[in-house]
């Protein structure tokens, strides 16, 4: 059983047509797993629905606590890409004994041209086979938490040399 | 570097509007990797574009030969789901020393409700981290070649008990 | 009130993933009108769900009878493109006093690259404002029933000079 | 020949993945007409690309001037929904002798769940057949400029009783 913790980010943004703006409502993860015809046993839990630029240390502490408390040894976290590395860092010291993979999207799943479905398939696969440790699954790759940064000019994740 | 061998299957079927039927043209894999914003180094090669129900032993032998000859030690193969297990079987004896992952789709990528993009992200992740051997990546999971079958009534892949 | 009579055609084809083939199930018209946020009062009725190449004269007679019997003076018919002109012809003599517009699609709505939604918006608009008579709404235009043919080589409808 | 004047609005908003926000770039109208397999002769011109809440009287005056100067007697204008009625009003007095139809979208075309393609098909049809005058094509209907308002609570356009 894999636990999927939803925290928000571009991955789950929607278009609010009455306000003409982007907003959060329910997560799309369940519908995406159905679209992918996934038969992996998962427990999906929405912890929060925020832009990761708005995450506080208290929010990150809640994520760490929930990862530690959850019964599952393998956890996938959907998260905004802007501060994904920060959350990965606190998880690495706070939850050292589980396989934790964070992923997100550069374009909301609600859009036709989203990387969300690809990233979800990718992260769900990595989390099933990697040993304990915290990593980030973006752009088709898996990066150890301490060897990755988001290149904000190019909008992708890249490896930091050892 | 990962080699991606395209062989056809539902994954790459298109709708031919002049004939009103499904058909094959070029693969969608490149465009799907761009959509997923994949930054994995890949060499995409179209070996054939056929329904796997139409595959002959000669076709499968070509796939085996190409996998053996390719310089890459990790190979992802897109393939029709109907005889994916058969091709996996001949690959297991013909190419024992590479990491080979086969994937496909139940619904053509050209359709809005396709599992193709999810499966591609999934398979591309498994092929990067698994040890040598042949497996099938479908429904979010990875199955050893000799422990899987396609359940044609339910339209999904399932594990055969040891 | 506009009556929408559904008869099938490429417009409503779906992909049957268990059989790996195109098939008919329920119409998509209701869901398409919701997507278009249509506020036009309509009565949607599925008369048949067939490829228009398989239509018999009995099928066309049923369409004519239903158009005549329906209480509404304005009727939109979704129909396969291959014999849309034939049905339009029998309607022109059988139901001379109503505004009837036929439309369809070159690519199934279930596909991402479909003209279906555009054609539905187009036809629904023409049927609201045209005087009694039978026409075909395809390719953004409205053609009188006796001045149009389907160009099967190019896959579009064109005007026959007077 | 129909002139299509593009002024922006939700219809043409895109998702800017580097900034994580909605923005304008080029119009989608040409690509939408290709998707609809439209064979209507059109001249597409981008006049401006702004949210209609940001439109000034100078902007509206430019739209009026261009409509008057354009050689075509039939003009379709894509426009934000929030102040579409205001622009329609100034057009009615400024350009009394042409068939002008304004349309827009509640959800950006770039999103999968957009009404944009339906509205474009609808408006393009109305503009071909209506007599001179200014109207708004939204929600599948066509409203005279002085008999319509946007219901901002419900997000749709409705008729104002005479």
What does this structure look like?
The structure is a homotetramer of 162-residue chains. By secondary structure, chain A is of the alpha/beta class. In chain A, 28% of the residues lie in helices and 31% in strands. The first copy, chain A, has a six-stranded mixed sheet, with helices on both faces. A two-stranded antiparallel ribbon of chain A has the order 2-3. In chain A, strands 9-10 form a two-stranded antiparallel sheet. In chain A, helix 2 packs across helix 3. The longest helix of chain A is centred in the C-terminal third of the chain and has 14 residues. The mean pLDDT of chain A is 97. At the A-B interface, helix 1, helix 4 and strand 10 of A face helix 1, helix 4 and strand 10 of B.
Characteristics of this structure?
six-stranded mixed beta sheet; 28% helix; homotetramer; 10 strands; two-stranded antiparallel ribbon
Give the SSE string of chain A.
EEEHEHEHEHEEEE
Helicity of chain A, as a percent range: 25-40%
Distance between the termini of chain A: 33 Å
Largest interface: A-B, 35 and 35 residues
**Tally of DSSP β-strands of chain A:** 10
Task: Output the number of helix runs of chain A.
Answer: 4
Shape of chain A: globular
Rounded radius of gyration of chain A (Å): 15 Å
- Tell me the major beta sheet of chain A: 6 strands, mixed
The strand order across the widest sheet of chain A is 4-1-5-6-7-8
**Unreliable segments of chain A (pLDDT under 50, ≥5 consecutive)?**
none
Q: Give me the secondary-structure category of chain A.
A: alpha/beta
Q: What proportion strand of chain A?
A: 25-35%
User: What is the averaged pLDDT score of chain A?
Assistant: 97
Oligomeric status of the shown chains? Answer: homotetramer
């Amino acid at each position: 059983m894999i636990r999927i913790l939803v925290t928000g980010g571009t991955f789950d943004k929607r278009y609010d047509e009455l306000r003409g703006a982007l907003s959060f409502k329910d997560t799309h993860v369940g519908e995406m797993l159905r679209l992918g015809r996934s038969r992996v046993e998962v427990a999906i839990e929405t912890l929060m629905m925020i832009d990761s630029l708005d995450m506080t240390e208290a929010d990150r502490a809640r994520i760490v606590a929930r990862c530690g408390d959850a019964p599952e040894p393998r956890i996938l976290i959907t998260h905004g890409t802007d501060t994904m590395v920060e959350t990965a860092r606190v998880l690495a010291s706070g939850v050292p004994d589980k396989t934790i993979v964070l992923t997100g999207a550069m374009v909301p799943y609600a859009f036709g041209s989203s990387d969300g479905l690809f990233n979800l398939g990718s992260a769900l696969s990595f989390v099933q086979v990697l040993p304990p440790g915290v990593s980030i699954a973006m752009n088709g790759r898996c990066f150890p938490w301490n060897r990755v940064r988001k290149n904000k000019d190019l909008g992708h994740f890249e490896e930091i040399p050892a």
